[in-house]
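Expect sequence, tokenised fold; for instance:
***
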Amino acid sequence: MTEEIQNDAAFGATDESATGPSFTVEKIYVKDVSFEVPNAPAVFNEQTQPQLQMNLSQQVTRLNDAAFEVVLGVTLTCTADDKPLYLAEVKQAGVFGLAGFDAQTLDAMLGTHCPNVLYPYARQLISDLIQAGGFPPFLLQPLSFEALYAEGLRQRMTQGQPGLESSEAAGNA
């Protein structure tokens, strides 16, 4: 059985020109996490309607010719009557192998496919943090990273900025 696995691994490591472009998820990890309840325990007695604000950011770092670290930042701020109830910040990261893509497709993969892989992990972690912080469960809604990428691409074209794959960091998504 071990021999079969080694043969399959060797088969998967063929020349990329024979197999075409490849995308692999090498590692997924939490790079940074923070949860704050600055006015606890008084906030648990608040009877007002909370307001939520979510900010997204994405950072892409080229590790070598075919490996990229993508960091998806999600910040959720909950306030009531202009007082902070809680602040949850997660930087969910992954190392992705991307080989054989042209520059435009590589940029799109880094801007859409990689965040789509990372978002469910960040979403679950934020939900767990909020519940562990003593607040009712909260689940972030699904996002269209394709639409966010298209808008970001339009803005970059207007400003004459390079694509994601050629920059160390991308701004807010």
About this structure: The chain has one domain: 20-165. The longest helix spans residues 103-132.
